[in-house]
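Troubleshooting: if your tokenizer reports a length mismatch, compare against these two reference records.
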Amino acid sequence: MEHYSVLKLPFDATPAEIRAAYFDAVRKYHPDAQNGEGDGGRFIEVQQAYEVLVDGKRRAAYDRSLPESAQETSATQVGVRYSRTTIHRSGEPQLIYALLDLSCTRKIDPNELPPAHVCVILDRSSSMRGERLDMVRANLNRLIRKLRSSDVLSIVTFSDRAEVLVPPVALSDPARIESVVMGISAGGATEIFQGLDLGFEVFKRYAGRSNFLKHLILITDGHTYGDEERCYEVAERAAVEGISIHALGIGYEWNDTFLDRLSSLSGGNSVYISAAEDLVQFIEQKIQSLSVNYARKSELVLELPEHVTLNYAFRIQPNVSPLEVNFPIQLGPLEYGRNTSVILEFKIDQLQSVEPEQIIASGRVYFEIPSKTIPIERQFIEIKRPVRNTWNKEKTPTAILTAMSRLSLYRLQEKARKEAGAGDIESSSLHLKYLASRFMAQGNQDLARTALMEADHLQKHQRFSDEGEKDIKYGTRSLFLLPDPELKKL
């Protein structure tokens, strides 16, 4: 295996990056590792790669042996836009927002598009019986018909146990797979870990080409109990392997907080399926994104000064989702011709420095590109602002202002939910009514009506309704999908 790929390094890796990658790999693959991933063969590859790359002369000789394509110019870019042109010296906390734009500068080449391995993890518990399972079966067959012949599909079903219904198979005979899907029946309880863990193992066991895009689609309509932490561990392992988890919640009874975190840990997103057309739309969008993926994953690593905190991270396109603020932050895939845009909220506790410029954060964005000889690209990033003695009122750029405005609505509904959960019904109700007024001012009458009805339900029953809670949360999230002149496709 190629040395840079063994250590998951870019071609222009620095000596410090080589050492850090080596020690990470040793911890993971050493035969005595306690993480269950000890692999003597892989450990030997790691040792050999490190011995070559850490030695300047041996590395230069090795580089000359690689094909020219290994040294091609990077096609990824990272841009930063800010909510303010300056920050000010103060003993008081201040916030600043940064909008990261990740882009691919290369034009799409159909010959370079990698195939995809899509693994569907389907909840077949008793609550899925009837219309829900019928809807899923029909749309699974829609997915089968629209995947490319070079793509691979696998299907895992679960209730209180899991089984591989369709092992990884190329789609040369879709009719046979469709007949298997139509035979799925419902029964049993919901234990998501069973399905998720087996799905992850399906990816690991499949001996297909390493350049596949990897997508795991979890479909469920219920809660899982007692195995959430184990599910998160699977999601973290999936992120390392470049597997994106997309969680689809059908109906109103599923745990959206759990599925949000589960998907964000791997760079995926959770989707609310309230009607058949929502599932149709997801399938269509997924097929479209598979046909234009350049990088199958991108992740952000930042170093912050002691007085700076990253409060919040939210991906606003292409797939809207809050992101888990643990480094590395999984930003998701990167598509040809379309930015991945993420808004970051930083809190600066105190700023007394006499320096004319303040570094708020510095770090790197890593991309994993299946079509490249050396799949890892890395872009350095530095988030910084000039420092002034006084605060000056200024106009926030349109793209940042739009994102901040929509983000404030999303976080307001989060606050209302937390207040209701803590028993502060009055504050939660007031915030819902304020949300309704904001929705009404923007012309979103349906959302405004839902928020007012939920405020009334809250007063009467001292809790959110399952339906209203998800309608408001995912309705507010969908506002990020509204057209904006500075957040459009390139």
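Reference record two:
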Amino acid sequence: MTGEPRVQTTDRRLQPVLSLRDLIFYGIVIIQPIAPVPIFGVTQSLSHGHAVTAVLLSGAAMMLTAFSYGRMAALYPSAGSAYSYVGRGLNPHLGFLAGWAMALDYLLFPIVALIQAGLTVERLVPAIPYTAWVVFFVIGMTAINWRGIRTTARANMTLLAGMSIVILAFLVLAIGYLAKLHGWFGLLSTAPFYDARTFNLPAIATATSFAALTYIGFDGLTTLAEDVENPRRNVLVALVGVCAFLTLFSCLLVYLAQLVWPDYTTVQNVETAFMDVTRRVGGDGLFHALGVVIVLGSLGSGLAAGVAAARLLFAMGRDGVLPKRTFGYLNPTTNTPTFNIALIGGLALTGALVLSLEHAGALLNFGAFLSFMGVNLATLNQYYFRRSHGGRAHWLSDLVVPGLGFLFCFGMWLSLPTLSQIVGGAWFVVGIVYNAWITRGFRSAPTMIDFSER
């Protein structure tokens, strides 16, 4: 008998002080308004010139999934992760596997951030090779995390303000460039959405799965459920609202970029293609400004992701999911999990030198889509079959929406490149074997980690 998951609990409770507006702002800070910029070129190439379509389709899937996250947060306002939602809503062993998939994301996010920063700064300072920049950034990020220094909320707001200024400058200059080149009607075109000459459904499906990187991190809002006024309503509204806003804003950015540079095969470097677009509309000034913003944003995300990954490993070690002596160790001087920080730094360096942005992003999405599918199924089970909310089941909100969310995510998961399927599948198999070992052949329930302790 597996029984109920064993949950590590705490008596500490946070005061609900965040409003809906605060939560939406925090969500935009997490994902960042420049999210589609670093992945624009790869998405454009994978989709054969239909990047805006890929971003729009992935945004639709994320909004459906965000609805499911919000529904589960209403049932478990202190859980805060797919790990808990799937474990409580479906089965504790499936919850462990959702957490295992989520751990892959935590480990890969610093790699993706590092690749983005390294590629961008190489375009700004081409005399110094990519490898040297990656090594430099890894050493700096590891040293900062080792000392226990975190990015503050004020720094995040300053960074968001800088991003917003640069992106707004691009919007204004791009509109002016297109109007001058083609007239005001040049701003209206269906080609970014559908071009019969290059339209290829399998290619767009692959690009859509990659474009989901635009929205990765939206589920982080659920970790603030205990801090929010009226969490049963506001977490759901904020999650869907943030995804809707970023879908529309990202589509606008990508749409204008496609009109400014319609031939995706002529960019200097597909992984930094948006920088070439900004140079075309705003010259070297906007080119360098965007480059600096991408580097700072990537490094900020990398620092935060490194801390989160190290503390996830610490939480798993503390609660006995991983060997406690190693992963549960805290440095008595800095009060940081130094072994985990060093491990994350080594993995980030190796991944950034071995993987391309496309492969690292696809592998990250492998774990993300598995978690998303699990949350959609848990929502369907809890609301439609179990009726845990205590009311009558509604076919649209309780069945259709989570069902479509699952199907969308499943379709994007199937469209991931073969390499990510193989590597991600191997990671998943290891998780199944490890879970069988620690639960004595699935005879006992795995421990559910309380992420509020991180």
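Descriptive notes for reference record two:
- DSSP finds 15 helices and two strands in the chain.
- The chain has one domain: 6-453.
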